Amino acid sequence: MSNAAGLSFDLPPGVPADVDVPDEPLTAALDRAAVTWPDRVALDFLGATTTYRELADAAARGAQVLLDLGVRPGDRVALAMPNCPSHVVAFWAALRVGAVVVEHNPTYTAEELAHQLADSGAVVAVVWQKTVPAVLASLERTDVRAVVAVDLSADLPWAKRLALRLPLARARRTRAAMCGPVPSHVPSWHRLAAAARPASTTAPSPDDLALLQYTGGTTGTPKAAMLSHRNLVANALQGHAWTGAEPGTEVVYGVLPFFHAFGLTLCLSYAVRVGATLVLFPSFDPALVLEAQRRRPGTFLPAVPPMLDRLVTAATEAGADLSSFRHAISGAMALPAETARRWEEATGGLVVEGYGMTETSPVALGNPLAPERRPGTLGLPFPGTRVRIVDQEDPTRDVDPATGGELLIQGPQVFQGYWQRPEETAAQLLPGGWLRTGDVVRVDRGSVVLVDRMKEMIVTGGFKVYPSQVEDHLRGMPGIADVAVVGVPGGAMGESVVAAVVLDDGASGVDLGAVREWCEQRLARYALPRRLVVLTELPRSQVGKVLRRVVRDQVLAGEPA
Prior knowledge:
Elements: H1 27-36, E1 41-45, E2 48-51, H2 52-68, E3 76-80, H3 85-96, E4 100-103, H4 110-120, E5 124-128, H5 132-137, E6 146-150, H6 158-163, H7 169-178, H8 189-195, E7 209-215, E8 223-228, H9 229-243, E9 251-254, H10 261-273, E10 277-280, H11 286-295, E11 300-303, H12 305-318, E12 327-330, H13 337-347, E13 350-356, E14 363-366, E15 380-381, E16 386-390, E17 405-410, H14 422-428, E18 429-430, E19 434-444, E20 447-453, E21 458-460, E22 463-465, H15 467-474, E23 480-489, E24 495-503, H16 512-519, E25 531-534, H17 548-557
Parallel strand pairs: 1-10, 3-4, 3-5, 4-7, 5-6, 9-10, 11-12, 12-13, 24-25
Antiparallel strand pairs: 1-2, 7-8, 13-14, 14-15, 16-17, 17-19, 18-19, 19-20, 21-22, 23-24
């Protein structure tokens, strides 16, 4: 049985059930912003400011740089750099010439970059100076014809650039962290852009490919999700409808990396659509955030829970004021109730949990930005988004939403498929444009609740164990600061449940017997951990998500704490 229309939900007051996605490319938002708010600060990078008029001009000059390097519509342009104005400019410049942006983590190894560059077929790579050696080492295995280096320090305010030249230990450390040696044959992005005239380009089609965003790195070999201009426009529009932002007033803090779908959409396309000032940070550093907060108070913070915790702690210790933040959206992992409480107490604003995937551009569901929010739930579908809950083995059969099953999503933000992977696309995208998420959810009192990921589910003795349920219970155990639960080969049982824990500072120790006794309070016997591993820290992705696959590998390798 199939429910092609999807489940029904009551959206928050003022939030439309659907959105009318305009027939325009993503670049139209920047063109509009440059006309509507020409003198409004678009970017603030450690005090260096760029207005919307200046940003549009810089993007046009960057477009000419790419044209001079031979980039043509449909070509892929690789970007690998931290958050900085040059990253923003290169992003918009590539889209202006009709090219496809390919985002990469600038800290990747040469091998990791080689795979993605070769897979995407990128012809030009605009990369951070410190990433240049890794890209050059991979050139023989890729189609990259030109590498352009970005000097992060060149984006700083004049006074801070001057301070880096001082013969002081602190200046040397900062310079070494921001810059790196570049071979003489690799041109400078800043010099090329300064010499270029603004390009006259033809706007891409709304259905043209805009972005290749790699995903799946925590579960296997990364593959590129294909996102069109229409996908990205739709998600920015949905985000605007959800937040109700007053155009030309918001100050968005860009602490999430732009090479991650969460950071890219909310800090680039959404921010420009609502005419926000984007305060950029090359990496998440609470001290830098508090410094910016004194200079240009933020109103909207997309983040992950560990960032919220660290920022509140730093603000408390420094006596800093966070009350300008009206809204925060937390994603990539479950938002603990205690984290939400601390943030809302410190700011007087709201923090809500959102849900999405790279394949949904990325946001698909969210909690209402209103007192009626329900912490610990994924919330409700975004405007124009439909969801179904289906049998995990047979996605054509809808199941009782209260019982739970796999979440399917349909909407204008759902991706076009995986780059050069038709079989994986067919397995993920079902007829009618329904996306299989691989996440098990249920509906409780009108909200969608995450149960766990199907790929990380543990099967022991024929029973299904959801790691997050065991983790949620263990996080409340005295002495345990953090935990990741994984399954390892368990002989006739299939898999054994293993709890990898990080102990609280000063904790005398936790043994397996105590863990099992604690878990027996709420969990079935088959879900009780059969092994306990103590780690000094849990491996996390760049945005703070615990990498269960890496934890499992550590357990199997018998790594010491």
